Amino acid sequence: MHEPVQTLPSHPESPLLPQQAEFWRELYALILHNDPMCEYPPELVVPHRVDIGFDPDHDHPRPDILWIRPADLKRLQVAHSTFVADLHKSSPPLVYQPGSKGVVLTAGKNQLPVLVIGLRMLRRTDCDLPVE
């Protein structure tokens, strides 16, 4: 006689999932429509001291750690302006449930460990807000 196989409960599908998918499709289309078509990727320039710290009493210039060819810089500026104008004309509607609460986190590949630590810290303080 075989023991019944236990399965983990599946996560309930959000009723907002179709609208969220549509939001990202529309935003992606806007991004593609405003591709600057740069010829070269930015080149990383590492100055001697990148971290200048934060001092609210002094306005320190931030280091520019990317070098972009002038023609590509112009393409980026035009693409950004038209992207912002397109957003003002027809931005995809934000998808959320009014009155709901939750935490939204973002992280790139290198920041994932920090995100996971932050999430664990939230949970250890008995925070049970949904996280997206």
What does this structure look like?
The chain has three helices and two strands, in the order H-E-E-H-H. With 132 residues, it is mainly alpha-helical. It has a two-stranded antiparallel sheet with strand order 1-2. The longest helix is centred in the middle third of the chain and has 21 residues, at 70-90. The protein is extended. The model has no long low-confidence stretch (mean pLDDT 85).
Summarize the model shown:
With 132 residues, this protein is mainly alpha-helical. The chain is built from three helices and two strands.
Radius of gyration from the CA trace? Answer: 22 Å
Termini separation: 42 Å
The SSE order reads: HEEHH
- The total of beta strands comes to 2
The level of helicity is: 25-40%
Strand order of the largest sheet: 1-2
Low-confidence stretches: none
Provide key terms for this protein.
132 residues, two-stranded antiparallel sheet, 3 helices, 39% helix, 3% strand, extended
Draw up the topology in text.
Blueprint (H helix, E strand, L loop, with lengths): L16 H17 L9 E2 L21 E2 L2 H21 L21 H13 L8
Antiparallel strand pairs: 1-2
